[in-house]
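Re: your question from the hallway

Yes, I did run it. Sequences:
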Amino acid sequence: MDEIDERIIKLTQNGIPIKRSPFADISIELGISEKEIIKRLEKMKQEEIIRRFGASIGHRDIGILANAMCVWNVADEMTDEVGTIMASFSEVTHCYERPRVPGWDYNLFTMVHSYTKEECYEIAAKISKATDIKDYKLLFSDREFKKTGVRL
Amino acid sequence: MILLDDTDKKILNTIQFDFPLETEPFQKLGEQLGISENEVIKRLERLQNERAVRKIGPIINRKGIGGTSTLVAATVPEDKVDEVAAYINEYHEVSHNYHRPGKFNIWFTISAPSRRRIDNILEELRERTGLEFIDLPTKKLFKIGVKFNIW
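Structure:
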């Protein structure tokens, strides 16, 4: 990633304009062609500097109001196996292993988003059955203070 | 809350993961969906104004550019939640921040170029708020691929 790549990210990370040639202004600013910008974005995708180029959805604004962080207490020697099973559920958008700390015993985290809380509970019950992990909780977000995504 | 028709939903389902990376992406999108470029633009403007679409841009991989991230939680008295959330939001390294009722009621993620920067932010927040934070850095990533199936 060179300096131009970095500037491309900085100039697009807040969103490209919704117009016929959304990269035209950046092209002028950077003094490179629109095609070159596309080529560089593609390359950064291949190099996994960017995960994808696309839309971030305001899920709450379209009615996906039930957003659960499911936390699971999984024996340390089982986390790889269990994490892989959890990640295989299409309803799970994120799955992470994190450390336990004093006052917090849950070490696997899965995010589940749906239209209703009941659906989230059903999905968690399905995951619990598939993994035989019984110690778990769903933490629903009821307010969003910030959701900018990762920024350079 | 915004009402979506079938075409809106098709657009939203397509542009999350299959946004055409081209110099005239909305024309291409129109071709794919069988509507005109103008129609795509008109609908996307509405979707963005109503916040159904937050932005169209790169989703950055913090690890891919050299960096690290963590999930942090705190127990905050309910009458202080707004104030504390505002402090937390000031850091541009904070990418997400939510209220979740429970013993720990504020949950946020920090993504930074170095672990040291994360430690500095947490130290400053401790000083400014007098609160304790639990710091849960990623040990292993099994999946990340937020796609909302809109139906």
